[in-house]
From TrEMBL:
Function according to Swiss-Prot or TrEMBL: Modulates RecA activity.
Family (UniProt): Belongs to the RecX family.
Annotated InterPro entries: RecX_HTH_1st (IPR053926), Regulatory_RecX (IPR003783), WH-like_DNA-bd_sf (IPR036388)
Biological processes per GO annotation: regulation of DNA repair
Signal peptide: none
UniProt keyword annotations, A-Z: Cytoplasm
The name this protein goes by in its record: Regulatory protein RecX
Location of the RecX first three-helical domain: 5-42
Localization, UniProt: Cytoplasm
Keyword Cell membrane among UniProt keywords: no
Gene Ontology cellular component annotations, sorted alphabetically: cytoplasm
Biological source species: Venenivibrio stagnispumantis
Length: 136
């Protein structure tokens, strides 16, 4: 199958970061030169846009309640681009996660352990627990 056609089929199912798509094409048996050429074409045509995808991925991570560490780990697997959540974004992410996970019992120790085990910074944990337990 034509490499460009195969790449477009992959991209029609979901968006890929450049690094992910290169790995998929390489595993399919295409040469590095062919892959580089088709990636360049797809970028020029607007099929691949790492920055736009990165922003969407960041928004999704906030909704899911990912910490900065978890976001970095996930992105490292998919692309060379690194992204940090701001303190406000990480706090929002922690609060989203707490609201989804703690419906009834809101014990201080359990909430702190829960956030700590998910990689949130101590500063964010303190702010999130205070807001969450005070019901703000």
């Amino acid at each position: 199958m034509n490499i460009k056609k195969y790449a477009i089929i992959l991209l029609s199912k979901r968006d890929y970061f450049e690094k992910e798509l290169k790995e998929k094409l390489y595993k399919k048996g295409y040469s590095k030169e062919e892959i580089d050429n088709v990636i360049k074409e797809l970028k020029e045509e607007g099929y691949i846009n790492d920055e736009k995808l990165l922003n969407r991925y960041k928004e999704l991570s906030l909704q899911k309640g990912y910490s900065t560490l978890k976001l970095k780990k996930k992105l490292y697997q998919k692309t060379e681009i690194t992204q940090n959540l701001s303190e406000e974004e990480e706090l929002l992410s922690a609060l989203n996660l707490l609201e989804k996970s703690f419906k009834k019992e809101k014990n201080f120790i359990n909430v702190v352990k829960f956030l700590k085990n998910r990689g949130f910074s101590w500063n964010t944990i303190q702010k999130a627990v205070k807001k969450f337990l005070d019901g703000e």
